[in-house]
């Protein structure tokens, strides 16, 4: 099989010769200009480093108060996990579920998967399920909304400021760092390159 | 086939890339976050309350002087499900305040006799207030107060523990009064089930706390006190406030020194009334029984036992609840009265040694005829007291009797009985008087009196008597003339007027001298004082 | 081997009897049902792409109506509640002078979903009626819907954060309104519509002009 000799643009179905990318080079579809692949220097190292950093900050953001409010002498602090509680207790379980999945579970599962896949690549061990995990990581991507949540926080922040003093907790900063690293990781994680590596790892050629 | 085309640049070498600094820094930051967060986490204490009304996990704040110092972290039932344990996460800074006697209570809107409090929590929701303690030993489990203490936190003053005398139950917020001035409050009421006693935590505000000395005694002010005792009717009223609510008064008894000023929490006993604090409390007393065969109506416990008008003890019991009393309706039954005699009141000291001495003395007295009788203290109220007297006729070899283990002081006759006895003997004496000869003498005297009056009648009816009357008439006439001569216009009157005028003239001249003498009696000797020194220019 | 050598680059893969895996991008002959590398189901075009897209689009339009007419947020001040719809919220923010926030909410909650639905309808219609012009622009529009679609969720997160934070006993409480659910579902359905849409279909319209290539492959 010569699967690696060709690539098909997944938006316009154009058959193309597989790009051989040097460090820092990008490949685009000549017809629809779709970005096909980028070869990053130390790509797999970067993916793993960013993913693990993001994981650390995601877990840290669960542990502390997220936002604090001070209105008319009343102080109130919530952690991220408490906000689920409040939503569930006010009969908005479906919102809590959407929130939980899109802001936490999708990024968490993606990151764990990425760490698993890239550890396997890094150690060059064909562990079981690596491909299935990578498949799910790819599929989950559109549903990751953690960066939108950050914007949501900022908007609500501005909305509340006139009502009360808002203090940002440690979790907030931790969450910001998590989102930054997650996006850095997803940027460096190149689908095409990853599967090329996996193809070699599982000796398909 | 593909290795020369597709993947020449892909390295799988285990070379440590500089990108690994990022997760390393991430770990450092995360560790720092955990450290900085958990190093600020303060102590967790548990406080028990009856219920958790208004308390919410992670929401209800804990405050100290209205500064938030923590939050309710957990709410759980206690083992018996009859209360709740409220877990409080406090700030590290207040760790030092969590000592044994620190107190917690829930501030929620309350309307009570102490006024309206916690009004601000109506909107904001309840919070838990901490009052720091003064003890040194750390504690992390507390029993929360169900009501806030009446005294605001941190008020300078003196905390006291008062032991109730048992009559009136006071409640938190009742005033403590010193000579009509409210100087403190009862903070809270604590019932000790083991001792079956009520204890009060009282607070005396500064500067009045200096009034509390070691000899201070507290008494109940019941607002309106009527005492119908052996001394008669006594009515006492306090201030209007105490009239409504009652309160506690304190002072040093009249016959005692003030003692030292109390500076630390101390225990005091509450006396039942103002008069009670002045009673000398003797710790040693002898108990005797008196057996009366006549009525003891009017004798009450607490009535005095007197000897020649001096109080030597008091009546302890007048009831008949003794095992040896079967039926007091029996004709020959006696009514027991238990009395105490205090050695300190009969000239001895209030010691164990003198107690023995007193006992010997009293027993000797009994042998010599010491007996006790009832005497009326107040004829209006009919209250009685016990009067000890020495029986005039000593029966030979007075034997000691015992009643229920108490030495019996023989009963003397009632004062009224004695009076009746005296009246009887008086009548007897009158009966025995020699009345017949006396009556004969008297009739003879009457005869001679009649003769004398007859003689006088005769004198006035004769001529000599008429002459006497005429001369009296004459004398009266001349007196009349003399009075007319002195009347206005007469010569004598002119002369008298002239004399009076000259006398007034003399007196007018003498007046300045007399007034001077009156003001400065020594001016007759030292002369008039110089006035030049005051106004030199006028000299 | 030989047939692969004869593959023409720069031509539609389907016409040459090849398809690429949606997950791992490896290519395989059309006859293959499963990707030999990642095991995903293979298909040259998303099956029933247009129908699925239409279905999701109609659902999202239906959801858009309650999402904009019902209150998205209930604010209780001292026990008396008032509901804010998305639009009234934007107006309130504008009146209070929070122009940037008003613009953000307006764009994210009203402009983006509507634009996205309009774009997808246009794309679907152009495929439906085989309108082959300006395919590159259409592809760009499609990419735009994929890119901006998720950002509509901002308002939902704002509501969630406010509801979680503003819980002040009797003083002030904020609860999510029913529209929050329908709006969230609307965003999800438009995203599903975008995912269901296969942009290759746009390009297929252009391929009709070169049927000889297909024949050459076969």
Question: Main attributes?
Answer:
heterotrimer; B: 539 residues; alpha+beta; 4 domains; eight-stranded mixed beta sheet; 10 helices; 26 strands; 28% helix; C: 218 residues; SH3 type barrels; 2 domains; two-stranded antiparallel ribbon; 57% helix
Task: Describe the protein's architecture and organization.
The complex is a heterotrimer of chains A (205), B (539) and C (218). Chain A is of the alpha+beta class. Chain A has helices at 43-63, 80-89, 93-123, 130-140, 146-161, 170-188, 191-201, and strands spanning 6-8, 14-17, 26-28, 35-38, 67-71, 74-78, 165-168. Chain A folds into 2 domains: 1-39, no CATH class; 43-201. Helix content of chain A is 58%, strand content 14%. In chain A, helix 1 (43-63) packs antiparallel against helix 3, helix 1 (43-63) packs antiparallel against helix 6 (170-188) and helix 2 packs antiparallel against helix 3 (93-123). Chain B has 4 domains: 38-148, no CATH class; 152-281, no CATH class; 286-413, no CATH class; 494-523. In chain B, a hairpin with a 2-residue loop joins strand 25 (401-403) and strand 26. Chain B is elongated, with a radius of gyration of 48 Å. Chain C folds into 2 domains: 2-43, Roll (SH3 type barrels); 49-207, no CATH class. Helices cover 57% and strands 11% of the residues of chain C. Chain C contains 9 helices and 7 strands; from the N terminus they run αβββαββααααββααα. The longest helix of chain C has 30 residues, at 99-128. Chains in contact: A-B, A-C, B-C. Chains A and C meet through strand 1, strand 2, strand 5, strand 6 and helix 2 of A and strand 1, strand 2, helix 4, helix 5 and helix 6 of C. Strand 2 (14-17) of chain A pairs antiparallel with strand 1 of chain C.
């Amino acid at each position: 099989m010569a699967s690696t000799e060709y690539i098909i643009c997944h938006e316009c179905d154009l058959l193309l010769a597989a790009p051989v990318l040097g460090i820092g080079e990008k490949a685009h579809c000549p017809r629809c200009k779709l970005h096909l692949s980028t070869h990053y220097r130390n790509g797999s190292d970067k993916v793993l480093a960013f993913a693990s950093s993001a994981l650390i900050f995601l877990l840290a953001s669960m542990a502390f108060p997220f936002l604090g409010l001070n209105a008319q002498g009343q102080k109130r602090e919530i952690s991220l996990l408490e906000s689920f509680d409040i939503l569930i207790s006010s009969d908005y379980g479906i919102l809590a579920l959407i929130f939980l999945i899109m802001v936490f579970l999708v990024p968490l599962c993606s990151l764990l998967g990425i760490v698993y896949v890239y550890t396997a690549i890094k150690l060059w061990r064909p562990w079981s399920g690596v491909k299935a995990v990578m498949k799910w990581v790819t599929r989950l991507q559109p549903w990751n909304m953690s960066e939108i949540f950050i914007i949501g926080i900022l908007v609500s922040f501005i909305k509340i400021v006139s009502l009360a003093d808002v203090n940002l907790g440690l979790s907030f900063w931790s969450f910001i760092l998590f989102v930054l690293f997650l996006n850095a990781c997803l940027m460096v994680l190149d689908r095409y390159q990853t599967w090329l590596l996996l193809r070699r790892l599982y000796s398909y050629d | 086939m593909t290795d020369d085309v597709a993947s020449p640049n892909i390295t799988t070498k285990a070379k440590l890339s500089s990108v690994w600094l990022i997760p390393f820094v991430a770990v450092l930051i995360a560790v720092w976050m955990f450290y900085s967060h958990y190093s600020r986490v303060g102590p967790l204490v548990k406080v028990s309350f009856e219920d958790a009304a208004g308390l919410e996990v992670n929401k209800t704040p804990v405050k100290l002087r209205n500064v938030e110092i923590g939050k309710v972290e957990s709410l759980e039932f206690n083992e018996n499900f009859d209360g709740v344990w409220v877990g409080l996460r406090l700030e590290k800074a207040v760790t030092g305040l969590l000592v044994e006697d620190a107190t917690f209570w829930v501030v929620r809107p309350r309307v009570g006799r102490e006024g309206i409090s916690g009004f601000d929590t109506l909107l904001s929701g309840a919070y838990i207030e901490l009052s720091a303690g003064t003890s040194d030993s750390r504690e992390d489990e507390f029993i929360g107060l169900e009501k806030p203490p009446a005294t605001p936190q941190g008020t300078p003053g003196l905390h006291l523990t008062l032991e109730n005398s048992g009559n009136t139950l006071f409640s938190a917020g009742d005033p403590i009064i010193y000579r009509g001035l409210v100087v403190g409050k009862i903070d809270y009421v604590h019932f000790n089930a083991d001792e079956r006693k009520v204890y009060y935590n009282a607070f005396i505000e500064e500067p009045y706390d200096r009034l509390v000395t070691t000899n201070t005694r507290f008494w109940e002010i019941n607002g309106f006190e009527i005492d119908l005792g052996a001394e008669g009717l006594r009515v006492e009223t306090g201030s209007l406030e105490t009239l409504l609510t009652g309160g506690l008064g304190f002072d040093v008894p009249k016959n005692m020194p003030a003692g030292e000023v109390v500076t630390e929490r101390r225990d005091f006993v509450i006396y039942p009334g103002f008069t009670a604090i002045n009673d000398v409390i003797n710790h040693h007393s002898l108990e005797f029984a008196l057996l009366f065969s006549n009525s003891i109506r009017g004798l009450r416990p607490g009535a005095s036992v007197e000897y020649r008008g001096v109080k030597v003890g008091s009546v302890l019991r007048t009831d008949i609840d003794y095992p040896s009393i079967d039926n007091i309706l029996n004709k020959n039954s006696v009514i027991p009265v238990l009395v105490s005699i205090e050695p300190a009141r009969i000239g001895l000291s209030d010691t164990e040694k003198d107690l023995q001495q007193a006992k010997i003395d009293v027993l000797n007295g009994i042998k010599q005829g010491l007996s006790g009788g009832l005497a009326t203290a107040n004829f209006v109220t009919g209250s009685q007291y016990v009067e000890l007297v020495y029986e005039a006729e000593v029966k030979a070899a007075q034997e000691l009797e015992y009643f229920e283990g108490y030495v019996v002081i023989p009963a003397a006759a009632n004062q009224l009985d004695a009076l009746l006895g005296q009246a009887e003997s008086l009548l007897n004496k009158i009966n025995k008087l020699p009345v017949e000869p006396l009556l004969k003498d008297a009739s003879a005297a009457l005869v001679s009196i009649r003769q004398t009056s007859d003689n006088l009648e005769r004198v006035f009816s004769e001529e000599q008597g008429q002459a006497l009357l005429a001369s009296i008439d004459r004398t009266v006439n001349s007196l009349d003339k003399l009075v007319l001569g002195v009347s206005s216009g007469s010569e004598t009157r002119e002369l008298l007027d002239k004399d009076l005028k000259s006398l007034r003239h003399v007196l007018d001249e003498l007046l300045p001298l007399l007034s001077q003498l009156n003001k400065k009696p020594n001016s007759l000797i030292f002369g008039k004082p110089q006035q030049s020194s005051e106004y030199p220019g006028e000299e | 081997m030989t047939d692969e050598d004869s593959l023409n680059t720069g031509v539609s893969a389907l016409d040459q009897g090849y398809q690429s895996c949606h997950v791992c991008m490896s290519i395989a002959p059309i006859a293959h049902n499963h990707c030999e590398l990642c095991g995903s189901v293979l298909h040259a075009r998303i099956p029933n792409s247009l129908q699925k897209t239409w279905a999701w689009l109609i659902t999202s339009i239906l959801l858009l109506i309650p999402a904009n007419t019902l209150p998205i947020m209930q604010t209780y001040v001292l026990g008396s509640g008032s509901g804010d719809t998305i639009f009234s919220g934007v107006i309130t923010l504008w009146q209070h002078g929070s122009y940037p926030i008003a613009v953000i909410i307006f764009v994210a909650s009203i402009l983006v979903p509507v634009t996205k639905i309009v774009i997808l309808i246009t794309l679907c219609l152009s495929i439906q009626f085989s309108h082959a012009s300006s395919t590159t622009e259409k592809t760009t529009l499609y990419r735009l819907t994929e890119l901006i679609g998720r950002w509509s969720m901002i308002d939902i997160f704002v509501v969630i954060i406010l509801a979680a934070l503003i819980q002040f006993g009797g003083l002030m409480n904020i609860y999510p309104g029913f529209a929050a659910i329908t709006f969230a579902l609307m965003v999800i359905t438009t995203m599903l519509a975008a995912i269901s849409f296969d942009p290759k279909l746009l390009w297929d319209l252009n391929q009709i002009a070169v049927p000889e290539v297909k024949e050459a492959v076969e």
